Amino acid sequence: MGIYGMVTGKAGKSGFGSASTAEDVTHGIDANHLTAIITGGTSGIGLEAARVLAMRGAHVIIAARNTKAANESKEMIVQMNPNARVDFLQLDLSSTKSVRSFVHQFLALNLPLNILINNAGVMFCPFQLTEDGIESQFATNHIGHFLLTNLLLDKMKSTSKESRIEGRIVNLSSVAHTYTYSQGIKFDSINDPDGYSEKKAYGQSKLSNLLHSNALSRKLKEEGVNITVNSVHPGLVTTNLFRHSGLGMKVFKAMSFFLWKDITQGAATTCYVALNPNMKGVTGKYFADCNVTAPSKFGTNDSLADKLWDFSRRVLSPLDAELHSFLWAMSSLRLHGRYCSVFHTDSQELVNMVADPDSWPRFQSELAEFQELRTSFPDFTLTYCSRGKNEKADLLAKNARLHNSAFDYVSTSIPL
Ligand SMILES: NC(=O)c1ccc[n+]([C@@H]2O[C@H](COP(=O)([O-])OP(=O)(O)OC[C@H]3O[C@@H](n4cnc5c(N)ncnc54)[C@H](OP(=O)(O)O)[C@@H]3O)[C@@H](O)[C@H]2O)c1
């Protein structure tokens, strides 16, 4: 569609364009037989999408972290449409524990699930690690949704199979996916505060949303599952998303006022992809202004999408939860000006190490290195982290102390 379409609102091939509203693109659609989850349905685009899906008859589950805002949103939707079926379940996407708990609660309701709209998002946040030790924009925008989608997939598969109705997953990406780090996704330093850019980290997370859609779409196609997965750029829409943006964005907005949409238009592409019958069988595509559009080069890179898929799975594995805690421990110790090194093992390895010190080749060679370091860094601290219980880590520390009493040891047990 391009700038011309954005400015003029001219309809594209789908019959809709940037001026279309969520109500326009769902006009006449009966969604009474559908159940949809919308993350972040308490504000901006998500709230409008929730309102319009409920208006078309869908049973909408708002997944949000703020109970007060969720109740107010629900009240507002029901006030406008007393027949609306809207429920709320708590979900904080920045916490894998909360995502798991949300899915547990949703599955306990024994509802079908036809539509999943991964809408919630944060933008331009200052560097911060989540409670799982993951950079917050990547964690909230991508990892939380990646986990949520994977945990809900069986439910969506069984719903589509039993109902014979196509399931639909919609990921809110952004045109900002084009503005990311030079390598697309910083797999080897995702949690590194050095070189962190609030804007590029947001772009990286939105590229991840797009690549997640593409990879999942391919996997479901290969499996022959009747669920489509697409990503959307909703347009430039004035919402709370801009809470962390500075003067530069205000100036940009003033200069580009003719490109901005209101909320009713901002939710149109999401609702079109989620509900419109024209979308039947369309999967693995990226949409803007209710029409298929071309993403960036990174956005069409299948091997990058596969790499992100594997990386996201590893981030979510218990071992990686441990690794992230290590990184956190390291960065916090560095902040205190202390040298820190880390052993990384699982509890089984730990038991062997305690039982038979001579079979610790890696540990032995590291010890020699530490001894050298100790001469240059008298303030040396060895942080030992393990998946095992505290006693095991303590035992290792005690045993290691017998080998070289010159070291200080801090043992940490990482909760899984
Ligand atoms: N607005 C635009 O111009 C634009 C452009 C391109 C893409 N997008 C994308 O569109 C989506 C919706 O954004 P919006 O503009 O509607 O912004 P918004 O008004 O700020 O809405 C974002 C929603 O996400 C929720 N959220 C944030 N962090 C969360 C967390 N950890 N757990 C659960 N929910 C969380 C927010 O809840 P709280 O109220 O509790 O924070 C809010 O309900 C985002 O994915 C954004 O990247 C927007």
TrEMBL record:
Belongs to the short-chain dehydrogenases/reductases (SDR) family. Residues 315-400 form the RNase H type-1 domain. CDD domains: retinol-DH_like_SDR_c_like, RNase_H_like. InterPro entries: NAD(P)-bd_dom_sf (IPR036291), RNase_H-like_dom_plant (IPR044730), RNaseH-like_sf (IPR012337), RNaseH_domain (IPR002156), RNaseH_sf (IPR036397), SDR_fam (IPR002347), TIC32 (IPR055280). One of its GO terms (molecular function) is RNA-DNA hybrid ribonuclease activity. It holds the Pfam family RVT_3. This is RNase H type-1 domain-containing protein. PANTHER family: SHORT-CHAIN DEHYDROGENASE TIC 32, CHLOROPLASTIC-LIKE. It comes from the Eukaryota.
